[in-house]
Amino acid sequence: MNFAKRHPKLAKLGGQFLKFYAFSMLVTLLQYLLLTFLPGLFYTYTDWCSIPCQLLHLRLGPVDTYVFNYPVTGDATGGMGYFAAFAITLFLAQCVNFPMQRNVTFKSKGNVWVQIAWYAVAFCLITVACSFLMGLYVPLCRQFFPPAVYNILITVINGGVQMVIYFPIYKIIFPEGEAK
Fold it and tell me: Which of 6, 23, 62, 111 lies at 20 to 30 Å from 13 by C-alpha?
């Protein structure tokens, strides 16, 4: 109680971060559940997992990768099927995350359409950046871990990186108070 009185801005920021973290964990759990079942559905009911999905080839010094790198693996963790599951999972997670962060964590009353637009831009840029990073560590995870563990690792690593990036971005996108 004394800390909040002596440092109200820091206490408020800490409270926001705790809510942000709790909601992010909830969304991460949703992503994990979806990534556990959706790829299997695509693998079982379509031939999409047999279609390679390697988009946006990048060469940066010793790094030679694709931003979205889903080669055919012979199972549900590869190809267009896994990319589709990944994309659907991300989209649904953001549909849950946006209103919780905007309305509960940051209590923003700004123009929702402007915020959705900025959120979409941030989401696209951060997704591309995180997907590029995934091109570096996913092959190692795929090589050494079974799919259930692999999905947990990918979700936790990707979610952790995104949380570090998103919190300051949300502070900008979701200003507190009424719209100006």
Answer: 111
pTM of the full structure: 0.78
Distance (Å, rounded) from C-alpha 174 to C-alpha 168? 10
CA distance 161 to 26: 16
- For residue 12, give both structure tokens: 């408020």
Q: Which of 167, 15, 20, 13 is nearest to 101 (CA)?
A: 20
Distance, in Å, from the CA atom of 26 to the CA atom of 139, rounded to the nearest integer, reads: 26
Specify whether the CB–CB gap between 48 and 81 falls below 8 A.
yes
Strand pairing category for 177-178 and 108-109 = parallel
Closest by Cα among 122, 25, 40 to 75? 40
Confidence at residue 93, expressed as pLDDT on a 0 to 100 scale: 92
pLDDT for 178 equals 64
pLDDT computed for residue 18 by the predictor: 93
pLDDT < 70 positions in the chain: 1, 177-180
Q: Report how far residue 147's alpha carbon sits from residue 158's, in angstroms, rounded to the nearest whole number.
A: 16
Q: Do residues 66 and 56 touch, judged by C-beta distance below 8 A? A: yes
Q: Encoding tokens for residue 123?
A: 């989401």
Neighbouring C-beta atoms of residue 143, cutoff 10 Å = 8
What dihedral do alpha carbons 152, 154, 155, 157 form, nearest 10°?
A: 110
